[in-house]
Amino acid sequence: MAEGSFWPAMDLLRSEPMQLVQLIIPTESAHRTISYLGDLGLFQFKDLNPEKSPFQRTYAGQIKRCAEMARKLRFFKDQMKKAGLSPSTRNISTDDDLDNLEVKLGELESELMEINANDEKLRHTYSELLEYKLVLQKAGEFFNSAQSTAAAHQREFEAQNGGEGSMDSPLLLEQEMTTDPSKHVKLGFVSGLVPRDKAMAFERILFRATRGNVFLKQSVVENPVIDPGSGEQVEKNVFIVFYSGERAKTKILKICEAYGANRYPFTEDLGKQFQMITEVSGRLAELKTTIDVGKAHQSNLLQRIGFQIEQWTVLVKKEKSVYHTLNMLSIDVTKKCLVAEGWCPVYGTHQIQDTLQRARLDSSSQVGAIFQVLQTKELPPTYFRTNKFTSAYQEIVDAYGVAKYREANPGVFTIVTFPFLFAVMFGDWGHGICLMLATLYLIAMEKKYSTQKLGDILEMTFGGRYVILMMSIFSIYTGFIYNEFFSVPFELFGPSAYSCRDLSCKDAYTSGLVKVRDTYPFGVDPKWHGTRSELPFLNSMKMKMSILLGVAQMNLGIMLSYFNAKFFSNNLNVRYQFVPQMIFLNSLFGYLSLLIIVKWSTGSQADLYHVMIYMFLSPAEDLGDNQLFFGQKYLQMLLLVLALVAVPWMLFPKPFLLKKQHEERLQGQSYTLLDNAEGNLEVESEPPTPHGHEEFEFSEVFVHQLIHTIEFVLGSVSNTASYLRLWALSLAHSELSSVFYDKVLLLAWGFNNTVILIIGIVVFVCATVGVLLIMETLSAFLHALRLHWVEFQNKFYEGDGYKFSPFSFTLLLSEEDEAA
């Protein structure tokens, strides 16, 4: 939107004028036309085939192809992530169309899957050989140890029995050595590896299954090994189980299988053991070389894919969205053209027509697309063109509800009123400077952060950086008014107007201060801070200021309801809604605001609580010392009568006039549009009667108006009281800041100890950042949000519209990036 004269001036007060358009597009240029409209991003298509399921639509096959290509691209990205590679940021042009891309992706997937399958087989074999080597080493050590132990036993036995026997006797018990060789029991054994966490259970179940007729020997493998089955690193033990008999062998094999123990053959022959270890080591070296070569080949292939995967991904997403949009179009009976309907801004008419013409030329179509505007009573979508500064404020408004078409947009006023009301609750120019510095850093890093995926909290903060900037600027302004810098007052705009009468001035009320100069030119006089009268004075000032700001903003909301009514030519709302609401609100709270200003101007000691209470209880009673100006009693009586008159004025005339208009319309005496006269009444329209007329339920309209009247009357009181949160939060912020300064920083300073001073500074900084700059900022933000949503917007804002969602490749890709 930076083409200058190409785009009209941005208007946030009213949404863009929209029109319903029908496009008749030749079949041969349909794809290119939709693609070009996606690049333009100014046309919202309507689904003309709502009765058809996604599988029954014309281009379901093409969407399935795109989904399959997207799956392949996701597979490539997963493989690149596993290999530690990232897509290249270099823009390499690709001229592939969808068909060529589909073939290329299929070939690349097949090649990559073949590489992965071979690599998996090689790694499986490598892991098995590695485990086999461990078994040969550990089992060999066991047999060598057993041989040495047996030789020692043999020598001991020969010494005891006169040298009978020989070294070649079997490694059995002494009694078996002297028996007949034909009766010797032949022992078999099973060797392998078992996971260490299952080793104890493995041993117990072997003992129970064979009734103790086995001998198990285990040896711990120092380093974890890669399991051939799972491919994960597992800590294991090498085991050898000696058994006797085939039944025992069968049981042992089944137990090994159940406990995930990998079995490997082993020979007792020492020469064969060395030969097998040599062969296994040679094969491991060969497999390692082969795996490294395959890995290098896979890495080269993934790097080639990485150069273009981003472009391919964008192309597939665009093509899929184009076919989704084509499925929303209806096919003409001749099947030679497609019919599309949708919304577009009025200012975009020429751009869309130029796009259609360009699509006809590029597709070499003999017939161009037909663009025609349709007349409809359907409510158009709402479209506000925003920039990076105004978009965050518009999001604040849209979170409450999207504006009705051409309704006055609160976002225009929110740009100023939202940060200002926040600053009233957050008035400290020291804290405001801290917020501004943090926000300026985010703005300075805007280009970097906008392309990165941030965390939820940081992303939210970054998105509202310009809102926070305005909040900080207004906080500095209100901080100057409150004269607070981390709760410390400064004589920035000149010397104080007061001085102490005596040394006990600090402990005295205002009587201890003597005015010696002109009034302090801007904000609160610094002498007020630290006196006993500081809190009563600031309480009174901030409470009255909150009421003035609240009444002003509520009046602004009612004024906007007037502009809405005039814009939609709704005279009923002007006469019987705007006028009585203005009278009622200002007869009570407008009058209170007037009293506050007069009291401030004259320095009167009148009790405004007493004045407002007895305005209702005893309107004719003499005001006495509470009278602020001549004729105040008679003015109060007049305002009270006007407030009482305004209530039935809001309640009764409008429903009866609406009923009269409806009857006249049915009789043909008047042709006033009922939906225009209805205005802000949110009565659900009934289906047409058999005679083609809309039903009018007077009871529903009257009840609705009754609810609206009661809501406004009670809301005027509650909303005004709600603005007192400005006073409460401002006071809380000021007192917290003062506590942290006095009880932490100054207290640490008074010890005259460097360590305590450093600790005090650290605690002060942490408390200021954590409580005042984070928690208090969030609290003031939420309260300002509530004041805008409830107290301000409910005076005029319906918020029952729906957003303009054009078919746009830019929006599509940005939304998918955020979702990713």
TrEMBL record:
TM spans (from-to): 420-443, 464-482, 545-563, 583-602, 634-652, 755-775
GO CC field: vacuolar proton-transporting V-type ATPase, V0 domain
GO biological process: vacuolar acidification
Coiled-coil annotated residue ranges, if any: 91-125
Position of the signal peptide: none
A Pfam family this chain is assigned to: V_ATPase_I
Function recorded in the entry: Essential component of the vacuolar proton pump (V-ATPase), a multimeric enzyme that catalyzes the translocation of protons across the membranes. Required for assembly and activity of the V-ATPase.
PANTHER family reported for this sequence: V-TYPE PROTON ATPASE SUBUNIT A, VACUOLAR PROTON ATPASES
Protein name in the entry: V-type proton ATPase subunit a
